[in-house]
Amino acid sequence: MELKRVDPGELNSSRQTVFLCLVDSSGSMEDFEYAMQKALLRFKEKLLNAPEVDEIIVNMVPFTKYIGSNEFTAPEDMSTAYTADGGTALYDAICYGKGRLGSYLEELRMHGITAKGIMVVFSDGYDEHSDTSFRDARKAIEQMQSLEKGNIVGFVSFGDNARGIAESLNVRQENIWNTDAT
User: What count of Cα atoms within 13 Å lies in the side-chain half-sphere of residue 80?
Assistant: First the structure.
């Protein structure tokens, strides 16, 4: 299925909430494949049932040691396909996500659209292949969450260690959710 990119010039609303979801597809997530599939389906269902569904844009970005690329789409076009294999570059994905989301928010603002960004990380928290450091990822999260920007970073944790890793990256506790796989 080819994803249709949401063109800011074609939006019917002057307000948008933009979700950029970083989906850990690495080999360490193999034990959580079913839980991840359920989490992605539940996430999509929540977006589709939100009263403001027409003001939501989403981008699902899978990552292993490589970071995938998808378009910003309407929630109904969001892919929930999932497989796990390969290494993990969590810190690279977080830094990439901050930049990608920031660029798209700026593009929306240039079209006169008020936009709020939400980056959600679906992961077990492990990193073994990043070129960027833990400190870089933590700084990216802190910059995203700064009050003047009004953006949110969330972390859907898989496994026993993920919550602690999310906390050490400075994701706000109220924005860390455990899956039923933890």
Answer: 15
Percent of the chain residues past pLDDT 70, beyond the cut: 95
CA nearest neighbour of 113 among 6, 20, 13, 19: 13
Global pTM reads 0.93
| Residue carrying structure tokens 């977006």 | 47
Q: What is the pLDDT of residues 20-65, one digit of tens each?
A: 999 999 999 999 999 999 999 999 999 999 999 999 999 999 999 9
Contact 123, 35 (CB under 8 A): no
Contact 137, 146 (CB under 8 A): no
Q: Which residues lie below 8 Å from residue 15, measured CB to CB, with a gap of 6+?
A: 55, 113, 114, 115
Q: Output b/e per residue, 100-119; b: 16+ Cβ within 10 A.
A: bbbebbeebeeeebebbbbb
Nearest to 92 by CA among 113, 120, 65: 65
Amino acid letter, residue 95: C
**Quick one: DSSP state of residue 3?**
P
